[in-house]
Amino acid sequence: MIEKDKYWQMYAEVWNNLHKKFIDKIDGTDAFWQEVRDTASQISKKYGECDFIVKLVLNELFEFEKIWKLQEKASG
């Protein structure tokens, strides 16, 4: 596989199976965060936990956490 195709696949995987799947249902429940962690782990393992995918996935998780904290602050 050409290297640029690999990057495209990683971006698409994170976009479709992490971002789109969870962005509209972020909450503070243990069940939500467990599902996010499990999905993030599966994606990372699929690509051999290379540095790029780990950082891409972590960035998405940090964004989810930021959104959740903003929601908590606004409601409370």
Rg over C-alpha atoms, rounded to the nearest angstrom: 13 Å
- Measure the end-to-end span: 49 Å
Give the low-confidence spans: none
Largest sheet: none
- Per DSSP E runs of 2 or more residues, the count of β-strands stands at 0
User: Structural class given helices, strands, pairing?
Assistant: mainly alpha
What string, H for helix and E for strand, traces the elements in order?
HHH
Report helical residue fraction: over 70%
What coarse outline follows from CA principal-axis ratios?
A: elongated
What is the secondary structure topology, with strand pairs?
Elements: H1 3-22, H2 30-46, H3 51-75
Explain what the structure shows.
This protein is mainly α. It is built from three helices and no strands. It is 82% helix and 0% strand. Helix 1 packs antiparallel against helix 2 and helix 1 runs parallel beside helix 3 (51-75). The model has no long low-confidence stretch (mean pLDDT 94).
In short:
By secondary structure, the protein is an all-alpha fold. The chain contains three helices and no strands.
